[in-house]
Description:
Blueprint: E1 2-8, E2 13-15, E3 17-20, E4 32-39, E5 53-56, E6 61-67, E7 82-85, E8 89-94, E9 99-104, E10 116-124, E11 133-137, E12 140-146, E13 172-176, E14 182-187
Parallel strand pairs: 3-12
Antiparallel strand pairs: 1-2, 1-4, 4-10, 5-9, 6-10, 7-8, 8-9, 11-12, 13-14
Amino acid sequence: EVRKTVYDAARDAYTSNLRVELAADGSLVQDEFIYRVKLIPHGGYFGVAIRQIADALPDGVDFVGFVSPAEVASGVVTPGTTENLKGNLVASWDEATRTVSINNAAGTVLTKQDEIDLFFKVRIAEFIPQVGIKNVICGTDATITPTNDYPLNVLKKDAKNPTKAITDPNATFEVRDAEGALVATASVKDGVL
Length: 193
């Protein structure tokens, strides 16, 4: 199992959705963030070589460096483009593909671990106000939204299969007031209205 979150320094906690305020000039009040990738090997999943786990950074997000667990609050970056992890794993940064990858260390297999955490710092170099910057890894994501408002993501689910998100970009939904009058229409993008 893989989980992706981003560190919320103001609350000293991790979240999958972080709202970041904009300054009066439209710039970000904070432009550096620390992602956490949590690997949770279940049951007897050890003694094997893992499949590569790849985290391609979205456009406008730059890799700054790896951060040790003890330095998350300070944000101090570890020198280099690789980071040794528990369980005989190693994380590496590839500038050409803009990807953080997690693999077994050479010649090893995964050792038994409850959880394995990877922390790395990024800088938001380009953004569109009010539009979330979603970083996806293995089907889990963390979103940083540059806004002074409080965004509300409405996830649309299939009525017949509540585990299936509606992702059809041609799907539209009507928003009506208490009297039933049409107020607006909304479209689906990345599974949310």
